[in-house]
C-alpha cells in the first residue's frame, strides 16, 4: 500500500510516527510519502532553515527534542548566545548548535545549485526517517502575515500602517497575538510543485490530510499550483483528521490563523473548509474527536463522511490507533 500525507511540523510528525506503526517501511521500500510544508522556511543569519521538513526528519529519525517538539535533543544554544552578544537580529529564533549543522549542510548544498528536494533527500540519508520526504516545492514561497505596524506607525490620517512580517516572526516573536489581516504566500505564483509531488498524490492508494495546521501548513501546500487539483482528482480516497479538539487547537495558535481566513475553530468548521470532493472540495471523509461528536451531523451536512474517534496523540501508540482509523475510514483495513 502507498500512502501520501500532506504535513506541517509537529502535528504532522506525530501523526506520521503513528502511521509508521501501521504501515512500516522495509529497507528501501518506503510506502509513505510526505509532502512537506516549506512556507515556513526562512533565512536566519545566512542559513536556510526549513522548520517543518526538519521537524518531520528529526521526529521520524529519532533526533527530535521530545520536550520542545522541535529542534534537536541534547541541544545547546552557545552560538545563539554569541550572536546575541554581537547584538545581531533576529534573537527570537531558536537556532540550536546541533541544529545549525543541518542548516549549514543545507545552505551549502543549495548554494552549490542542488534543488531542495535533493538536499532534503541527502539530509535524510543520515536520519533515515523511513518515509520519502518531498518538499512541496523547490521554489521559494514563504508565508507572510499582514498586520498593523507593531511599532504603532500611522498614516497622516491616523489609520494604522500595515506591514508584512515573515510567518516565523509573527508566530514565534509575537506568538500570533498581533491580529492578522491576511496571509500572503510570497512567490507562490511562480512556484512549481516539487518533481514527484503531483504524481505522489495522483498515483497512490490513500491521501491523508493529518492534523496539521489547516491554514499555514496544509493550506500552504494546497496553494502550490496543481496540488489542490491533484487532491480533488486523485482516484485514491482522501481522508482528513481534525487538528481541532473541543473547539480549540491542541497546541499552537491555529485559532488565530483560522480567524484570519474566516473559518470557525471547530472540527466541523475546518472539515467544511476543506470541503467534500463531491462538491468540488478536497475530502471524502473527516475524522473528528470524540469530544466533538456533536459536530458529526454538521460534517455530514457538508457532504463528508464523518468518523468519530479518539484523536489526541498522547503517545506513539495513540497516534498508531488514529492512523488505523484513517485506513479503516478509507476502507483499506
Ligand atoms: P507545526 O507546523 O509545528 O505548527 O505543526 P502542524 O501544522 O503539523 O500541526 C499543528 C496542529 O496540530 C495544531 O493545529 C494542533 O491543534 C494539531 N495537533 C497537535 N497535536 C495534536 C493531537 O494530538 N491531536 C490532534 N487531533 N491534533 C493535534
Ligand atoms: Ca509549521
Commentary on this structure:
The chain is an alpha/beta fold. The chain folds into two domains: 1-141 and 187-333, CofD-like domains (Rossmann fold), CATH 3.40.50.10680; 142-186, no CATH class. Helices cover 36% and strands 18% of the residues. It has 13 helices and 14 strands. The chain has helices at 10-22, 51-61, 78-86, 97-111, 116-127, 167-173, 197-202, 218-223, 227-233, 254-260, 267-274, 296-301, 316-329; strands at 3-7, 32-36, 42-44, 47-49, 132-135, 142-148, 162-166, 182-186, 206-209, 238-241, 244-245, 248-249, 285-289, 305-309. Helix 1 (10-22) packs across helix 13. The chain is globular. The model has no long low-confidence stretch (mean pLDDT 97). It binds guanosine-5'-diphosphate and calcium ion.
Summarize the topology.
Blueprint: E1 3-7, H1 10-22, E2 32-36, E3 42-44, E4 47-49, H2 51-61, H3 78-86, H4 97-111, H5 116-127, E5 132-135, E6 142-148, E7 162-166, H6 167-173, E8 182-186, H7 197-202, E9 206-209, H8 218-223, H9 227-233, E10 238-241, E11 244-245, E12 248-249, H10 254-260, H11 267-274, E13 285-289, H12 296-301, E14 305-309, H13 316-329
Parallel strand pairs: 1-2, 1-9, 2-5, 9-10, 10-13, 13-14
Antiparallel strand pairs: 3-4, 6-7, 6-8, 11-12
Helix pairs in contact: 1-2, 1-13, 2-5, 4-5
